[in-house]
Design a protein that fits this description.
- The chain is an alpha/beta fold and 207 residues long.
- It is 38% helix and 17% strand.
- It has two domains: 1-39; 78-201, Glutaredoxin, CATH 3.40.30.
- The chain has five helices and seven strands.
- Strand 1 and strand 2 (86-88) form a beta hairpin.
Length: 207
């Protein structure tokens, strides 16, 4: 008789324990669900990663999305120039910029380079031409610059990171920006002089 009573008490205690545990678990789950829906508890969800221009980088064109395509605000970058200085694109706002991606081994790059140098000299301070050499050591680039008598800045994209960001799929590639840094023209392959003059006319430099 006593043994039956003891087993009954033990079984009842286990049943009560299970019920209390279930109640606590239900309350905990409900609290966590409420916290998650309100943004509290467990940490806030990280924001989606988007590419946008900060007010400091692009103070005049906050409403224009950053993109290397026509109509977009040119992605900013900093690269080491052949002379050892640092070139930062966003510091050039206020005049049109011609970005020319090239390499010394590229025959079409060589073919169009005299025309680019000619326009850089012709337009002077009204146009900034920037040669972006992709993937080669400074000594080879310097030899190329000397052979063509280039007077505009040449910067070194040794890892191709800027070319990648500008969606460069072939060399040469030319990207023309207006004075606000907005992309107005893109050209893949060697430009004729008429091509070049047409793109410059789009940013107010008409011969």
């Amino acid at each position: 008789m006593k043994r039956n009573l003891i087993w009954a008490l033990v079984g009842g205690g286990l049943l009560v324990g299970v019920l209390i545990g279930g109640i606590i678990l239900f309350a905990a789950v409900k609290f966590m669900g409420t916290a998650a829906s309100s943004g509290e508890g467990g940490g806030a969800q990280p924001p989606a990663l988007t590419e946008s221009a900060s007010p400091q980088q692009n103070p005049q064109k906050e409403d224009v999305p950053v993109s290397p395509q026509i109509g977009g605000l040119s992605p900013d970058f900093s690269l080491t120039a052949l002379d050892g200085s640092t070139f930062t694109l966003s510091e050039t706002r206020g005049r049109p910029v011609l970005l020319n991606f090239w390499a010394t081994w590229c025959p079409p790059c060589r073919a169009e380079m005299p025309a680019i140098q000619s326009r850089a000299a012709e337009w002077g301070d009204d146009l900034l031409v920037v040669g972006i050499e992709v993937g080669e050591p400074p000594n080879e680039v310097q030899a190329f610059v000397d052979s063509f008598g280039l007077t505009f800045p040449v910067v070194l994209d040794r890892r191709g990171s800027v070319a990648h960001r500008y969606l460069v799929q072939g060399l040469p590639t030319t990207v023309v920006l207006d004075a606000d840094g907005v992309v107005q023209a893109r050209h893949v392959g060697a430009m004729s002089e008429s091509d070049l003059d047409g793109y410059l006319a789009q940013v107010g430099l008409e011969r």
